[in-house]
Amino acid sequence: MLPFLQSVVQSYLEGVGWGLEQLREAREELKEVSRALGKAGVESSRNAEGVKALEMMREVSVNHCQLLAAVSNLPRLYSVQSMVSETERLVESRRLLEAHARLMELECWQDDILWQLHGAGAPGTAGTALSTQDEELVRNYFSGVGKLVEALGKELWAVVGSGLALARQNPTPFVSAVRIVEREEALDQAMLEERGGAGGHSRPLPSGRPRCWRERFFQVLEEAVSARFRSVSYLHTRGPGLAGHLSALQHGIMGDLATVRHLLDHCVPPHYNLTRAYLRACHRCLQSHLGQVSGWELESGEIFAVLNWVLHIYNSSDMMGHPDLMVEMESEELGPLISQECLEQLQNKYVHSVRKSVSEWMHKALEVELTDWQRDQEPDTDHEGFYLTSLPTIITQMLEENARVALMVSESLRDQTIQMGLYEMENLLNRFREALVEFGKEHRRDQSTNQNKFYLHYLLASISNCIILKTSTESLQQQLSSRSASRFSRTPPGPLAALDRAVRRACRLVMDQLLLELQPFLQGLLSRSWLAQGDVMVTLKLCGVLERHFELYSRVRPPCRQRLQEECQWLTVVEYVRVLMQKRLVCRNAEERRQLAQRMALDAQHLRDLFQGLVEVEGSVSEVNPMALLPVLADFIRLKDPSMLTLEVSGLVAKYPDISDEHVSVLLDVRGDVSRDVRGTVLDLLEQSTPPLPAGYRPIFSDILVPTPSMPFCLPTAKCA
Asked: Which GO cellular component terms are attached (predicted)?
């Protein structure tokens, strides 16, 4: 163990000794270096005066280099003005390639002189900054060069702008312009690359560089396209002129594109993609132009021309969808010609304009209709013999034509136009119904003078008109797409409901006229004189009125013809029973009850024969049978045993559940043989048995009001009170 420790200590001591020796050697070397640096400082101080002398020599050398550059460039400087003048003549004569060659030579001289004056040309020198005054002097001397650049550019862009015309005549100037553009683009690129990789001794970019004439080439091309649209004004394209203008645009653009594809495209390098660039330029200019056109105050025909051109013609195979153009660019790359917002605004303006026109035409058509009602002749008839006027034809053709035209643009516009037409139809029918009411009032006022002999005929024609309009309305509603309802925030139009209201009003007026004509004959029925005379002429005259009305009803289109026939039967029975309820005739004995029942049954038979014969002629069977009421009432009066009235009333209530105790009381009064007890029993039974009206049952007694009995005059005694 001890020898090992001795060995370790010995190694440590040897290492310390070696380190101390190295430190002594380093100290000696540092002393030697310090002495050498001191000597170098002394020598440097001695040479300071020599460096000042070299500075003066450097200035002399720079001046010498500048003078040498000036002397060597004197021939060029003397010839600058003559070259500028000669280049100006070349530009004016459109010898563009020669002019550009001279211009490049002049620019090269200018750049070389400026660079040499900087001092970079002197061997072994770093160059000095050129004073602003000297640089300004050189640029003023070469000021004609800048003007030449502007003049050449002006001529160059004039050639590019008229490239389409030159291509058809002499494309040489256009080819020269493209070559110059490519030269300039190459110079720009070379100078940028030289400045980017030349280090500290790179030349500065000359003034006006880079010129980017290739980019300017495409700008001029687009400006040339835009020039076709800038001259167009609103006044030049009013009315049919707008459609003609758009057609001229179509042919002009397609002709220009053909020239570009077949001629100009061969005059430029392939990487220009000139046809594609021209397509984009046309599209952008059309976007701007149509945006301007859309802002004009356009009529419906003009808006249709724009929408049809934008949505169909522009993307069709006749324009941008042409197979040769599709090879160059897909229409989706160009984007929409007008924005969706602008498209919706145009469609709304179109619908608004059409609505205004439709409203005016409907107003005029209604005025013509009202004038026709005053004619002293029957209404016109169609090929089936039905009455009609010009109103439904005008309205139907107008709405269908508007829908057809709108569909040429889009389904959406067709739906909007139909919805608008249905709203206007509803408004028209409301005014039509009001006109019918006024027509009826006027007829009643002038009835004494009998001015309008064809009042009923025109009412029937109005009903037929409504049926035609209903068919047209249903046809328009069927054309609406399933998505149209969700696109309209307003309440959906209700022309069918308005039609039904108008038909109901016209039918009511027809029935009012029938009642007016029946009234004189109804007054002669169910009276004591009528019963005593036994004359059936009154009934026959009444049947004559009904027959004439039925004959006129045959001029009405189904189903309203059947409706009028049913209403006619209903009105006849109701008014007949109403006369009975007036108690003009109260039987005194059984013989009078027999005679009254017999006459009522006979009248019922006459009416039944009349109606059945007329309905059979029309080829339809009415579901309503009000005529069955008269024989029932006749049997009620004919009944010999008053004690059986309770049973008879039960049967009457079962058939006609809307009959009231007032009606039954009047019938008992007409019989004239009902005791107080029997009357009380019958009325009590009636009060206890009031069945609900069955489904589909049309009340008849509800239309028959029982006259209020007049109170007998009496003195106000205590008993009466």
From this structure: exocyst
